[in-house]
Amino acid sequence: MRFSISIFLVLIFFKSTAQSYELPTVHLEELTFIEVKDALNNGVKSVIIPTGGTEPNGPHMVLGKHNFRVKYLAQEIALKLSDAIVAPTIAYVPEGRIDPLEGWMNLPGTIHLPEEYFMKLIEYAARSFKQHGFEDIILIGDSGGNQNGLKKVSESLNLEWKDTNVRVHYISEYYKSSSISTVLDSLETEGFNPKDFGEHAGLTDTSRLLAISKELLRVDIMETLEYNDWSIDENRRLGYGGNPSQSSVKIGIRLNNAKILDSVDQINKLKDESRK
């Protein structure tokens, strides 16, 4: 994809007390175990666990919207933190119910993992990173269904690990960024209709993915869509609400930047508080 980092082209510099340490990428799955060991020894003590989801996003966006988006934004957050790497994106998350059918499971392509299993997956990813020497384990979720489980895991593990130097940070600002409302107010001032923003796969949601990779959208379809109020259809057969035809790269960049900066601010505050 357009946003992926090649290990042959990019060097990431991490600051440590001893020296600047070089890594070819911030993505764990693109590193060797030797490179991860060296990073830990040179002060890279934070790891971001990004969670996405596989669900319908209208006829104009791919099912993996959340996965592609959270991987890119986690990368940008890690680069700003300067002491973090990014774990593989978790694409299997709570999406409704299989029997009886509920939520996005009404539409094909959706993959549902019940919350208790999702929480166990996050828990054992965190336990793995603690074992290897990471001290700040950062949880971010791009989908609404992820938030409750991420919060519960962070609370449970922090209680268990209260006498250690390891903390799990649930980043609420990633999903509900405080600065997003400012961006939306600006868009309204610029003439956009707030009803077009939508909560799922509308103007704002679509713009955020468009700013990352046009290849992940069917732009020809997107441009023909009209406003859809999905509240009139409990099965959400169209898979979107709002007006994606009004989407743009510029809007997406503004929204993504707000989430990145707000997330970095919250992470730094939580890390500082945990060290007091």
Written account of the structure:
It is a single chain. The protein contains nine helices and eight strands. Mean pLDDT is 92; it is low at 1-10. Helix 3 (115-132) packs across helix 4 (147-160) and helix 7 (203-210) crosses helix 9 (249-274). With 276 residues, the chain is of the alpha/beta class.
Q: Layout of helices and strands, plus pairs?
A:
Blueprint: E1 12-15, E2 20-23, H1 33-41, E3 46-51, H2 65-81, E4 84-86, E5 96-97, E6 102-103, H3 115-132, E7 136-141, H4 147-160, E8 167-170, H5 172-175, H6 180-189, H7 203-210, H8 219-222, H9 249-274
Parallel strand pairs: 3-4, 3-7, 7-8
Antiparallel strand pairs: 1-2, 5-6
Helix pairs in contact: 2-9, 3-4, 7-9
What brief labels describe this structure?
disordered N terminus, two-stranded antiparallel ribbon, four-stranded parallel sheet
Number of helical segments with 4 or more residues: 9
Helix content: 25-40%
Look at the structure and give the mean pLDDT.
92
Tell me the number of strands: 8
Class inferred from helices and paired strands: alpha/beta
Biggest beta-sheet profile: 4 strands, parallel
